[in-house]
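Lecture notes, unit on protein representations.

Consider one protein chain, 156 amino acids long.
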Amino acid sequence: MGHHMAGLADEYYTSPVSYEATAVTTEPWEKNVTALLDNKLKWKDLVEPGTPIPTPWNKEEFDRFGYQIQKEHDSLRAAKVPEEIIEALFQRQMDREDQYFAKEKYRTQTGAFEGASYMAKGLYRSQVDCIMYTRHLRFCKVCQRTLEEVMGQYTR
């Protein structure tokens, strides 16, 4: 729904489809990611005063865990295990991610969190978590607003 209805970008960057670019030189067109070029923030109206931009978060620890899960996922897929085992891995991942996010100082705030749109560096998402970033079933404020704008075009 987020991709097809609202044109939202993927916000994750630890999957095998991710890539490294030397530098981002243009602003992405999707409303939920930014390169912060010229310090322009698409969603600055949602940022509380005092929230630093870029917004710090425990990216290194979170990434280590994400890459570990990815390796485990790949080995389970290669072993052709039953889907229940894959689902258990995903549940364990979500539970651990919740623990990481609970420790984040800016976990409920809108800011500019590095890592988005398949790139670990140089692109930013608006909140530390969103369904476009993890498998959690919550849209961040920017994605919610974008979906509401699109749906509003058809329901007004």
